Amino acid sequence: MRSGSSIWVVPITKNSTSKESVPMPSAEALQLMLDKMALHELVQNYCRAVDRRDYALLESVYHPDSIDDHSPMFKGSGPEFVRWVPSSVERFELTQHVITSASFVVDGTIAEGECFIVAYHLRKREPQRETIAHGRYLDRYEKRDGVWRILYRKIIYDWSEVRPYDKELFAKISRGSAKASPDENDPLYTELKLFKRGVR
Length: 200
Hints:
Elements lengths: L1 E2 L23 H25 L3 H6 L1 E9 L3 E4 H12 L2 E16 L2 E14 L5 E16 L2 E18 L2 H7 L13 H5 L9
Parallel strand pairs: 2-7
Antiparallel strand pairs: 1-4, 2-3, 4-5, 5-6, 6-7
């Protein structure tokens, strides 16, 4: 079954144990739903892996023979990208990657996706500044042994903004709240017990 993000027709069957006819999705429709849910989780795991510097998790979202094109900063294999990321993010106090919307087209064990992304970066060096990139990931995915991973990713930069960081204002706004951390010390791991590093 091939389907994108548009409305698709669900075949109707009868539930033999019920006195009334009950709409039931076909096995193909259910599989499509499961595949799209898995793809959504995949692209969200990428964001969490980068922002929490969880490189075991980041490696798990790419196939070994994948390609990542973050030109002009990086272009190479997925595993090479995973090894490159630490040197790229070390100059930032904090990053936050947010998928604002995502559309997927699935055809059996292959799929494609357009994921809109907002990527926030807070520079460590003084004077601190915030860089926010707005763009899209154009992805190709493949399911192997029942697991979806990225086979190809290309980033498209639609627009960006750079602004000074108001440290005093943020201190007032965040007073009393837990402090974010780009590693295993983040409240994600101390407040929530089911989230484990390196686990999809």
